[in-house]
Amino acid sequence: MKRRRLWTLVVWGSLALSGSLAWAGDPTGAQTLKSDPGLPVDYVWVLICGFMVMFMQAGFACVEAGFCRAKNVTNLFTKNVMDFVVGSLAFWALGYGIMMGTDWKGLLGTSGFFLSGDGYDVGNYLTFFWQMVFAATAATIVSGAVAERLKFQAYLVYSAVITLFIYPIYGHWVWGGGWLSKLPYGLGHLDFAGSGVVHAVGGFIGLAGAIVLGPRYGKFDKNGRPRAIPGHSLPMAALGTFILWFGWYGFNPGSTFSAHHLRISVIAVNTTLAASAASLTALLIILLKTRRFDLGMALNGALAGLVAITAPCAWVEAWAAAVIGIVAGFIVVAGVYLLEGLKIDDPVGAVPVHGFNGIWGLLAVGIFADGTYGNYSIEPPFVKGLLYGGGVDQFISQLIGAGALILWAFGCGLVLFKVLDSLMGIRVEPKEELMGLDIIEHGTPAYPEFYTMNSQT
Amino acid sequence: MKRRRLWTLVVWGSLALSGSLAWAGDPTGAQTLKSDPGLPVDYVWVLICGFMVMFMQAGFACVEAGFCRAKNVTNLFTKNVMDFVVGSLAFWALGYGIMMGTDWKGLLGTSGFFLSGDGYDVGNYLTFFWQMVFAATAATIVSGAVAERLKFQAYLVYSAVITLFIYPIYGHWVWGGGWLSKLPYGLGHLDFAGSGVVHAVGGFIGLAGAIVLGPRYGKFDKNGRPRAIPGHSLPMAALGTFILWFGWYGFNPGSTFSAHHLRISVIAVNTTLAASAASLTALLIILLKTRRFDLGMALNGALAGLVAITAPCAWVEAWAAAVIGIVAGFIVVAGVYLLEGLKIDDPVGAVPVHGFNGIWGLLAVGIFADGTYGNYSIEPPFVKGLLYGGGVDQFISQLIGAGALILWAFGCGLVLFKVLDSLMGIRVEPKEELMGLDIIEHGTPAYPEFYTMNSQT
Amino acid sequence: MKRRRLWTLVVWGSLALSGSLAWAGDPTGAQTLKSDPGLPVDYVWVLICGFMVMFMQAGFACVEAGFCRAKNVTNLFTKNVMDFVVGSLAFWALGYGIMMGTDWKGLLGTSGFFLSGDGYDVGNYLTFFWQMVFAATAATIVSGAVAERLKFQAYLVYSAVITLFIYPIYGHWVWGGGWLSKLPYGLGHLDFAGSGVVHAVGGFIGLAGAIVLGPRYGKFDKNGRPRAIPGHSLPMAALGTFILWFGWYGFNPGSTFSAHHLRISVIAVNTTLAASAASLTALLIILLKTRRFDLGMALNGALAGLVAITAPCAWVEAWAAAVIGIVAGFIVVAGVYLLEGLKIDDPVGAVPVHGFNGIWGLLAVGIFADGTYGNYSIEPPFVKGLLYGGGVDQFISQLIGAGALILWAFGCGLVLFKVLDSLMGIRVEPKEELMGLDIIEHGTPAYPEFYTMNSQT
Q1: Residue B34 located in a structural domain
Q2: What is the ipTM score, two decimals?
Q3: C455: in domain
Q4: Which among A30, A80, A92 has CB closest to B273?
Q5: Model confidence, pTM
Q6: Domains in chain B, number
Q7: Residue C25: closest CA among chain A residues belongs to which residue?
């Protein structure tokens, strides 16, 4: 009987994540409960983890606004509220169906729009809720890279496009039963909780946006040397990072989509150790360079480690998580300098944190996976990487997925921002940029009673 | 066997919410566990959701203080801490017994004070915890409407009175087995998670308070035209809204009081879509009117949608949640202008958000309930509204409950504030109001090291 | 069958908390699940509560920074990030093995370092995660007492030493099967969720640090009279307190380490009532003294109540929780004045809140335990204190544990800070202290765009 129970769970979990969703159309939940009385704890697990992922929106808002100047803070909070608002509605209408609906040639899903018909089912609503909070996260990541100079109406449009098409289509390839999930190397391309699907997609769209927009006024002097533009509130950025770290415990462990995978404890530990190792690494690198304990880099280091461990978190053990984190710490620091060297202005470091470390996380699966957990399953086959005798197969799948991601996200991003720019102009006027976006776009400063320096450099 | 299990759950859930609580007096929990080994997941669900509801106190504090002026911020945070402190103690002493104790003529409960005697029982403590965090929420809502001019000692008294009597008595009528729950139309008056019991009660007491107090100095010019008094920190208000939105995922889905109702996934989705639809609606209305993307209205829009979906969230499907949200967006904007037209000063918009939209949520049950969920039960009879062939019966019960609520809450509020005013004077001196309440009432400004403009308009 | 199930749980729970951990080396979790299909809900409970405890780091950061001056805010946030970063890595490497590994003569554990070998097991990772977030809390508490004058490099070193040795050794004595847990009075020394192990240990190390460092410049005038140094942001301190209060619902109820102890509902209620009673008490004492509603003392009062109820929360009923809270309110106020009288400068009140009230919590177990819950078990023997006919036995164990704690924590703290001081000097230069630590140690102020008064008194 226990075997049957396990089997049910595996099947159910696989179904939920495989794109071949055949819902019973049980909106009450009574039939679903009878078919598997062990489901309540899975629902509790997935929902509460999903709530924590939704709360990450607050974290992103605080990190981005904290690292930017006071004159753009109303703008950044409005963006971070509205991308969840617009994203959830857009994903409900079309995005979810494109991502998780009936597969069409491995490219996109074609059913399940508006949760209608047989989609009115407790299991389908559960899956939708989970995928929706993830989709909103991807859109939010972009806003950091294009901060302090993008028109708000352009923001609304691109947020919708990301959650309607760009994110769901790539998501379908990996999590919806699309072609990347069926690559013939290893177990196909694997991305446990979304280093690639969520973070790198967001990061590379953001990179495209930062390039199309060009740097903020004053970011580079006339010799092209970068100038530091300090954020207006380090406490806000730090609080945001704590909120994100907290929410990541929903993001990663919750991605088992089942509490019956006791492996969730391993995932929670790995998430912690990678974040800590990356934060310490980034802090020490800057300490050696500047003799200062740099809070901003410690925060971005922690986020970098969290992004990097997101894909491999379920398939590696503690020491590997720490190593993945150390590398993530190096990558985030190097990435910041690289972008500055290329004269690309990413105000909050979204590209190194989410883009570069997202790719690193995908590759790490192929290196460190240790053969103790399967494809969202506690039954074999298990995932094995280079260091555990799995050969290069899994690594090849990871490389292909990473390559596809960069081409898709960066390519779509370039097209999107270029088209929007030619249609409506995506950058605010220079005068507005100097004054800050808050007054003209939103009619109110963030802190109307406080005297602030209008930082123009 | 599965049937028996389901049956146990239904009975237990109904008991817990019906007022006829007959506790076994099992403080260890061993007997209770033996009687139903499926209870642990229900306890985990209810408790964690309850913790999230408690965390909403932080959200209310941030929203209220963010929307008010710096000179009153210490005061607002002190209020928001102390109403939870006083409210939890008052509800423990008397409120809980009045709300959920043995029914007396459908009017109030008469047992279970101080959790003593047979009340020392794991199930009773669970129910108390849940009802206590809800009661504290109702008290907190009022503070927004009376902000920036109410004496602190009056605040302490009225908070206690609300959690001791006003809230529990109305709560008994709906959730404690009182007369509203037994109306002969439909399934009696229904309010799943408290659009009425919690939010509208708080909102209409607040309306009474705002009327008795009169507007803040400078809110209306000598021709009676309203003047905008901007809040001192939009980031604080936005962070507070994110916290409230997060906490609402405890508030609404947790109100099943059982994880065995897999319908919790539907509730989570409905909660999201209503909030998003309302926020977008409110933003767009103000955009059309002013050409500005108004963050404050987007935030209040989200909260309005959350309030409105709170009563119907378990009984409707996704599209209905979105429609309920769109209407909520209109109501909150119209409500703000209506109050200004009536020369009533509600500094943070608590009355339109919680009062008017709370009533809307009650009525929406009678319109959109689709016959897929019962009275906190996954067994029939199910709740059906106008649009799903249920006729007007349920709507009539909702109307009666809404009418009773407005009479009770607004009436008690008027009496309470009038009596307090004649006893102790509830409004601070004009000089103190101009200086801000922080120095005189609390001895310290909120931000002693920052230079702030003392905003007197 | 139900009996067997109960028995499994008791055994498992006891094992997990007894130090004689014999892990199966099951990294997949499939075998563990088969051996007890009821485990998923326990894992969900422990993990989510653990996530909430981790989030308390954000609360500590906000409380400490809010109660300190703007010029040291970058420093305080960097400390609070880095002590979790360093603490989690140090506890992974050595601390956990010293605390929970195979017992050596009742003094320390000697196995399980780096989670390696058979330690790669879902149950072991779960236990590690839980103990790790607790260990990081203890280190964080110290930072409040030594705020605004300690060198950052000294901070990094002492954080590591605490999580590597001081905390785990005392933790082993109580929770790892060491000598205090085996005292022959009552059920041995008991500390349910760590009033002693976590809070008092942190508080008394902090006391040693505050003494070795000496008071901040300007804290005492030349006649030795204390001068108030207001914190720079009361909203930040209040938000931090709300976050801590929220996180405490993970800290205390989660310490059952099992959702099958339905007693978790009682623990949640007790946690609330103690916090509320203590906050109200502290507020009223200061009101009588100064005629002001003091927000800072209300916040510290709530924290004091939370600390005091942490040890007894599982063994007492509601009225006792309220009484424990009232006493905690008196203790925190008296403690603040006592330290000032002794010319000890504890900027945020960490010693009265965590140190003195931690000891009070330990003693309260011996007084109020009512014989309804065992040693992390719902099976007898149950814990009984003075007021419930248990005699003085349990109280004696509590006294011995409290005495050992003070000697160990205060002693180790003195040695640690003295040695560090002679090796590297732990106090910043007077000039740096006047300027604030942010610029010199971290290279950036917390709020670079806001005009602030540099508060030197």
Answers
A1: no
A2: 0.95
A3: no
A4: A92
A5: 0.96
A6: 1
A7: A372
